[in-house]
Amino acid sequence: MRLLLVEDNQADADFLAASLRRQRAGDVQLVTVGTLRDATARLAVPEAPPFDVVLLDLHLPDGAGLQCVAVIQSVSDTLPIVVLSGQDDEEFAISILNKGVQDYLVKWEGQGRTILRSVRYAIERKRSELRMTFLAQFDPLTGIPNRHAFHEQLGRATARARREARTVTLLLLDLDDFKVVNDTLGHDAGDRLLKEGAERLRRGVRAGDVVARLGGDEFAVMMEGPHGPREVESVAQGLLAVFAEPFRIADRTLAVTTSIGIAMFPCDTPDVQLLLTNAGIAMRQAKESGKHNFKFFTSRMHADLMHYHGLERDLREALARHEFRLVYQPKVDLLTRRLRGLEALLRWDSPTRGEVGPATFIPVAEESGHIVPLGYWVIAEVCRRIKAWEAAGLPPVPVSLNVSARQFRLPDFHARVTGLIAQHGVDPALIEIEITEGLMMEDTDAAERCLAHLKAAGIRVSIDDFGTGYSSMQQLALLPFTELKLERSFVDRCFEDPSRLAIIESS
Fold first, then answer.
1. Measuring CA to CA, which residue among 341, 406, 164 is closest to residue 266?
2. Fewer CB atoms near the end CB (10 Å): N or C, the chain?
3. What distance in Å separates the CA atoms of residue 126 and residue 129, rounded to the nearest whole number?
4. Contact (Cβ atoms closer than 8 angstroms) between residue 247 and residue 253
């Protein structure tokens, strides 16, 4: 047991050291310093063995009274302190004990045995104090914050969110069929499952998210400032994934999943307690719908996500079931009234949804990645249609088709396109790729390389929606396009700007 005596009076220090020697306490090592500066220096040495107790005089050259206690506590708030005083003042003793000191001894009155007993009691009292502090804030089984601490943190987070106009998201979870594990394998197995579950939760959330155990097998995660339901969904899916891995408990492999309810502040409610209630309702809905899933409390938000996933699923199946078709919009020269070409427009005839408009399914196809195979299907279908018209003896006209940003950015895009055209034996000059002006300006160098490959293969390139403000004519001059399609508002404003009128006239 290492004791640090902070005492500038040598006679008092010698008395205490002699009192301890008389007890023949071989396990006690006394280190004496005369100032607070020396005390803090000793306590701050990382490689030295730690001290168990500080014996502290309150009249030192560089400090007095409560200041001495505060200095020691600023270095370590876990180290027990026994105050040594020259006066027997009960009122002062009570006040100093209320400041976190573990005991109060009057100098010269205590024998070695009394001092040692006080030191050991101080150590035990400090341990109990730290234990009580821990239990007040943390769950003793899992080591993560408990319900009380979580409520406090949730309250502070929602207060910040009000000031900063941000959101706070609450995810409420419990373990599916936890009671079965407890009843069949016993409470020890249940405790091990809870500890492992808490550890998986910590691994599954973002840095900065708060994880807590609210009681039983119920856990909570608090996210401050997520960007929207899709980010929250990503975290929820990650948690489902980490719980989908089997648990190894009591020499058995257990499949224990989780159900998650999600509520958002202040979208769902500005009341913190009601936020917990809403998340609980959503969690029960998740369980009732088959467990191992999550539900948003906000019906509109949940409906939006379900709508997205339903469309994404149906899009995937529609590709396999050949539910898409192309319609061809004619391009007519207004002066000669002659057909100059056709534009292929994608349509989806769903057996369950009916005719779905491009404005509805294209954004979902873009985000999910289905736009890539769908885009190549469009190119192949245009090639097949051109060959069919050719076989029917119709005069050939170029057909334009839109290409998505996600597809255009693929490094093998130009090779795939030229390969499809060659595979169907179509004249490349009959294919016109339409790309938006904004896409061209995202990476001009890459766009220029890709367009150069397409142009070298004889494929026509059109820039769509020119005039939306992305680019200048100087930038466009670098790109090997064959046609420029003007955006309607650009044409409407052309008479206000002679340069715009010049562009129209030149086209």
1. 164
2. C
3. 5
4. yes
Q: How far apart are CA 48 and CA 446, in angstroms?
A: 61
C-alpha span between 60 and 89 (Å, rounded): 19
Cβ contacts of residue 288 below 8 Å, gap of 6+?
none
Q: Mean per-residue pLDDT for 276-282?
A: 90
What is the spatial distance between Cα 349 and Cα 337, in angstroms, rounded to a whole number?
32
pLDDT band at 50 (very low <50, low <70, confident <90, very high): confident
Q: How far is CA 99 from CA 7, 81, 139, 202, 427, in A?
A: 20, 10, 26, 35, 90
The pLDDT confidence band at residue 130, using thresholds 50, 70 and 90, is confident
DSSP 372-421: HHHHHHHHHHHHHHHHHHHHTTPPP--EEEE--HHHHTSTTHHHHHHHHH
Joined tokens for residue 455: 């142009």
pLDDT band at 24 (very low <50, low <70, confident <90, very high): confident
Between 229 and 391, the more confident residue is 391
Long-range contacts of 320-324 (CB under 8 A, 24+ apart): 323/348, 323/349, 323/350, 323/351, 324/348, 324/349, 324/374, 324/377
Structure tokens at 176: 């599916």
Q: What is the three-class DSSP state of 417?
A: helix
Highest mean pLDDT among 72-76, 379-383, 464-468: 379-383
| C-beta of residue 257 within 8 angstroms of C-beta of residue 291 | yes
CB atoms within 10 A of CB 492: 11
Is the distance from CB of 409 to CB of 440 less than 8 angstroms?
A: no
CA distance 259 to 278: 14
Predicted confidence (pLDDT) per residue in 134-186, tens digit: 778 889 899 999 999 999 999 999 999 999 889 999 999 999 988 888 888 88
C-alpha span between 59 and 64 (Å, rounded): 5
Is 160 in contact with 167 (CB distance < 8 Å)?
A: no
> Count H helices, E strands: the chain?
20, 21
Can you read off the two tokens belonging to residue 80?
């027990």
Give the residue-averaged pLDDT of 345-371.
93
Question: How many alpha carbons lie under 13 Å from residue 504 in its C-beta half-sphere?
Answer: 17
| 483-486 and 247-249 beta bridge pairing | unpaired
Contact status, residue 339 vs residue 331, Cβ threshold 8 Å? yes
